[in-house]
Design goal:
Blueprint (H helix, E strand, L loop, with lengths): L1 H6 L6 H8 L15 H26 L3 H9 L4 H12 L1 H16 L2 H7 L11 H10 L6 H33 L1
């Protein structure tokens, strides 16, 4: 988060230099503008997730059944059809893990928001995890019970995503047998 804060600096940041080369200007910089601050944090959060997901997909590609690939070749599948109908369905477990990890990472994005914008500008980057911190531990008041209640809500949101995707994977496995 700190490196991306430097990257997004309004006058000396690399991003400002790059868009300035194309004649564009974002008033207040990416993190200082309420319309672009959320996108800046999303990009910063996706950067480490991309590498993690690539590792998951490379592991999933090693598990692709070579007999199915060979059978598809014998049936005349090439290029996009091979990818879409043979490879991608076998990557479903890797996709599930990548999706769940990305959703959980997005819901716990407190660290990026605290370092990059501290909830601003004008509260445009406040999310549930940051709101939980504000209510329970910040100078706005030590409302520990309220913060704990927000944590429980956040837990149930994550649990809902995970249960739904586990159920859908179970249904797919049950239907494949």
């Amino acid at each position: 988060g700190l490196v991306f804060s430097w990257f997004y600096l309004p006058t000396d940041g690399a991003f400002d230099q790059i868009i300035g080369f194309f004649g564009l200007k974002i008033s207040g910089g990416v993190l200082g503008n309420p319309n672009t601050a959320t996108y800046g944090i999303i990009a910063a959060g996706l950067w480490p997730q991309t590498a993690y997901c690539m590792i998951l997909y490379l592991t999933g590609l090693n598990a692709v059944d070579p007999e199915q690939v060979e059978a598809a070749r014998l049936d005349g599948a090439k290029g996009w059809k091979m990818l879409w109908y043979v490879i991608v369905p076998q990557l479903k477990p890797a996709t599930f893990i990548a999706f769940v990890v990305t959703i959980v990472g997005a819901l716990r994005s407190f660290d990026f928001i605290a370092v990059m914008t501290n909830g601003g500008p004008f509260g445009s980057t406040r999310v549930l995890s940051f709101y939980m911190f504000e209510e329970s531990l910040s100078e706005f008041g030590f409302r520990m019970g309220y913060g704990a209640a927000i944590a429980v809500v956040l837990f149930f949101i994550m649990l809902g995503f995970i249960v739904y995707f586990l159920w859908s994977m179970y249904q797919d496995e049950k239907g494949a047998r």
